[in-house]
Every structure is written in structure tokens, then in C-alpha cells.
Amino acid sequence: MAAAEFDIPKLKDDIEIPKLREGVMAHAKTFPAAKAVQDFMGYPHELGEDWKERAIDKMGELLGKYRSMKVFLDACVHCGACTDKCHYYLGTSDPKNMPVARQDLMRQVYRRYFTTAGKLFPKLVGAKDLTKDILNDWYSYYYQCSECRRCSVFCPYGIDTAEITMAGREILNHVGMGQKYSNEILSKVHKIGNNLGLPGPALEDTLEGLEEDIEADTGVAVKLPLDVKGVEVLLVTPSADFFSEPHVESLIGYAKVFHAAGISWTLSTHASEAGNFGLFNGNYESMRKVAMRIRDAALELGVKRIVVGECGHAWRVAYSFWNTLTGIGYGGDDPFSIEMQKQLDPTYPQPQHICELTNDLIKSGKIKVDPSLNDDLVVTFHDSCNVARASRMGTEPGGQFIIPRELIKSVVNNFHDMADETIGESTFCCGGGGGLLTDDLMEVRVKGAMPRATALNNVVKEHQVNFMAMICAICKAQFTKVLPKYGFNMSMVGGVHQLVSKAIKLD
Amino acid sequence: MGLSTVTMIYAGMFYIAALVLVVGLVYKIVDYSRTPVPLKIPTTPAPTTRSGVIYRMAKEVVVFESLFKANKWIWVFGWLFHFGLLLVLARHLRYFTEPVWFWVGIVQPFGKYASIMMVIGMAGLLARRFLVDRVRYISTPSDYLMLVLLIAIGLSGMLMTFVVHTDIVALKAFFLGLMYLDVQPLPQDLTLLVHLALVALLMVIFPISKLLHAPGLFFSPTRNQVDNPREHRHIAAWAARLDQKN
Questions:
Q1: Is B59 touching A (CB cutoff 8 A)?
Q2: How far is A390 from chain B (nearest CA, A)?
Q3: Less CB within 10 Å around the terminal CB: N or C of chain A?
Q4: pTM of the predicted structure, to 2 decimals
């Protein structure tokens, strides 16, 4: 498992645009999925004789199903607007990590097989036959993209490299080149119900232990109910919240919020995972299958509200896709979605983000907080990419930036934002999203975190910031691992509800 | 008096080019509009209403909002080029209309000088392809040639506007003749013939090249979708079939 040695970028005052260094990250290859995993997912585990036909057929199928892919592959004019926007390019200086170059890895093949110009004049328009070398490039560079969509903010046509990366990975899956990390996680969630493969009894034990800890700490019997029918809220949260640090501190925070507000709630063993790695692979059916566990649990438990914990890509799937995939939402006029929607309480948004819920409770005075309990902290907030650029909170555009900050400022007294061009819609990914949170991609992860680490370093120097709050399980896991390589203490990293947990008044 | 061979060749060339342009674009637009969009993927923050989306798109089309956020150099050159081209094209309408529309008369003097904006913009974009290492890396031969083609069209046009005038009355008769299927003689000076041949080439290239960014922008889901997934169920036909299996 020992990864190759690599240089850790030096943090400078500004995020500098590096000169190109061709091929410097070509060696980064995530571990391939083994036969058993690929079998379970319904993919081949090695290149067959007909790999090229399979790849081109799959590309054609996806082009017919996704307008985004067709328009994005046609529309790019190679203007260069995106070339300095990807954190992986900024951190590695490998030109194939420039968004347009990453897209071109697929666009060259698309042009050759699907466009008139590419069939007639391949050299002129940069069209190429699909070869094993190109396939290897895809495997390298489609796993050096965290699908964070930062490039899509700056593209004059809104081209979203994430859509191309997802399609690239799906084609790779279908020729037998799956990724160990993502596909193992998907098989765990399909078999057991969560990404960590934590079975029901283990989950029950963990929750009981947490209840004891909270009571010992606060003297209040705050409960973490599991599989309770007929309660108001089903909380769906990333499984990392159940035992990873600092994630679990936020789980404790959610429990205290429900307790203080007197809202009956439950977790579910069947839907013990908010994360949905189906998103990362561009496979609608796989993403839907994972999401359906939440619908099934909600119907089974008869809950009236569905609330989602701190997880970036989960919130993208929940907010943007659950209504489509599972009918959790409003406005459905078909039997499938009506069955779900008639059960849900129409006075609340469905699904609702835990930050929306907590912020409303604090603003309406239904729960009380004392921000001075966090006076040891000087806090900044890291906007997670999927929340920032692929979802919303509240009723207004941009609520996903306002609500978490309002919430933080109500529970802490010292808050400073990082530089404008590194937050909000321009936020930099943590470097570990989109299926890259695996040790075999450590070099990519560390280098990709350089822009965020630089922005953090500046507020640390200027405002003595000592805590970076966030609402994403992947961000938390990534930063606790890679920020120490830049000289930061891992205790600087934590959830927004970790701050709520400290400031909330119980009873 | 019979028509010259050159007139016949150019008449044929423009009929074919116009046909390729129209059929090609219609084919692409129909293809884009028939391809499903299974998921809500607007780049957020995004408008929550249809009118908000129209405003967002208008800002993209008119002032290149996203490009402005991205890079001021590309924005300046790109906008000079496109806005100049728009004025130049508007000015050219007088060769296709009789009587000339009122507003086309008004834009004439602006359109004349807009050609300078247009060529400066394109020269800037071309220079970036050579000078900026990142842009050089992603440029294909067609990226350079496309700019060279447009610059050549611009310069040959400017040559006729400012230096060696062509018989514009006869030229207008030629194009009106093409439109009414009554071909008239084409003035045969070299600058004009080069200008027109390059324009016809551009028309043919349009529907099979990156010039599809023009219709493509309107079909871009990250820009044209309303951000209301919790309130409205968005579902593609192929995806709805999965619901029935449950």
C-alpha cells in the first residue's frame, strides 16, 4: 500500500497559476476494482477482445441519454477560461488536469466516432481513434477530478467537466476498468445499507455508546433513536458520522438539536447512509438504487419529514435528485411519487438540510444557544463544492452560502471568511471529493488541497483562525488527513453542528 | 447577355452553403432538443423561476457574464469580436433588403467601424493561442485556422469598405437575385471574390464545428435549468420507466 514519495507544495501568499509540466501526474492510478466487486456491480473485470466496441457503444448510449454530454462535447471553443480554475491543475501543474484538457480526453474520441469533421479531418480538429493509451489516460485523469463543478461556473457555455468525468468513469466501468474504492463502497451500500459496511447491531451499539457519552458529558439523556416508527423526522446522514472523528461530534449536535426542540426523530439501519457514490460514476440506475433505500425506509417508518446531515455530495443528490429518483419532494403527479409525497408534511421543505432546520429553530427561538461557549475558537467556513455549486438551502438562490454562515455566527462570536475568490460559488474543493478519498490517490489529494490550504493559511495569519467549519463528511475526512501535511493541526477541522453542539442549551 | 462562369459558380456555392448551414443547424438543434435531460444540474446559485433563467441567459449571451468572472483578457477580446461581428452582420443586412430597413440604416456607420473592433478582438484571441502556454496546449489546428479564416473575412471586407470599393449596387443585385431565384451578374474583383468564398466556407463549417457553441449555449442544462427540484418533480421519459418497475 505504500504510495510513492512526492513533494508537498509550499504554501505561498497567493494561489499561483503554475507553468505546464506535461505528464507529471500520469503515474497517478487509483487501484482497480477486483473481479468480485465488478461482478457484483454487473461490470466486466478486464478488457475483453471487444473493449473498443463496448466503449464506443456505451459512449453512444450516454450521448443519447444525456443532453449535457452532447452539448458540452460540441460547444467548447478552447477559449481557455477554465484552464486555471481546477484545484488539481493548480496543485499539480499537469496540463491534463486543466478542465478543458480533461474534457478533450473524451472529446477527441467523440469527434472521431460521432462527428462529421472528426471522421473526415481528424488531424485538423484533434480527433483520435480510441486506443489503450487513451483509455489509460482516462483512468488516470478521470480519477483526478473531484466533479466539484468549479470550472462550470467560469465556462461561458456552462460546460461542466463533472458530467464528462462521470461519463468517462461509466465507460471505463463497462470495459472492465472500475475503481476499487468507489465500486467497493457501492457494493457495501447495496448489501448492508451504508458505505462503511456497518451492520445494524454495530450501529445500535455505537448509538447507545454515544447516548452514554452525551449523558456523562451534559447530564441530559439525549437519545439517538434507531428504526423507530411513526416519528416526525427521519435523519439520513453520512455513515462516517457514526464513528469517524470529527464527524461524530456533528451527529451529537444533531441529536441535541432534536432533543432541545422536542422533535421526535429516528435514524434507520436500512437507510444508514446519506452518501451516494452512484453520483460519481454517471450511472443513473446505480444512483437511483442507492437513493431508493431512503424512500423505502421513509415509507416503512411512516415519517413526515426527511432531514439530511452534513454531507456535500449527499446533499446534492438529496436536494437536486431525490425528487427525480425517488419522489421525495413535491409536485409529482404520478402514482410512484404521490405514494411518497402524500406522507410528507407540506409545511417543511422535503428533503431539508440539517442547517436549514437548526437555523430556523434558533431564529424562531425554539432552541437557545450561548455563543460564548465557543469563545476559544476563531472560525472560518469552507463551502463544500456540491453544496455550493449543485444545490441550495432556503428559498433564495445563494441560501447555501447564507444559511450555514448565519448558523455559525449564531453559535460563535469570532468568524472570518476566507478570500472571496475561494468561497461561495468559487469555493475550492477539499481535494478528496468525487470518489478520490482513498489512500491510493494521496498525492492527488494532497496537491489538490493546495488552493484551500493557501486560503486557510491566509486567514490563520491574518485573523488567528483556529477552526475551519464545514458541512461535508468527505471534506472532514480529507482535511484531517491532508492539512497536517501543510502544517495545520487536524483539530482545526470540524462540522458546523460540532459548534452547535457546544453552544446549545439543553432543557 | 449570358452570366459568366464565375457568377454561376458563386451562385451555386451560396445556394449549397446556405443549404448546409440551415439543414445542419436545424438537424443539430432538433437533436439537442430531443436528447433527454434526466437530472436537474443547474450550476448554482441559479434562478428559481423561468423569468430568472431568461435573465441569466440574457446576461450570458449579451455580456458573457461567466467569461467575465473567468478571465478579463479573453472577455475583452471575445466581446469585442462578437459585438463587432454583430454590428457588421447588421450592417450587411442592407445587401439583402430592399427597401433597407430603418434600423439597418442607422447602424451603417457603426457597423463600418465595428469591423475594426472585430478584427482586434480576433487578433487578441489568436495571440493568446500563441502566447499563453495553457491555451497553446489545448489549441488544435482548427482553432488557429478558424480565427485565421474569420480574420481574413474581416480584413477582406474592411479592404472593400475603406480602400478598394467594389460595385456594391451590382453586388446587392446579385444577392437579391439569389433570394428571388433570378441570378444577376456578380462584380468580379478579386477582394470581393475572396471575401465571399471565405464566407461560404464559414457557412459550411458552422454546423460541424465548435461554432455550435452558439446554439449550444441555449441548450446548456447548467445555465438554462430552473433551480426548483424540491418543488417540481423533474423526470425524463426513459427514467420514468424505472418508476413503474417498483
A1: no
A2: 5
A3: N
A4: 0.96
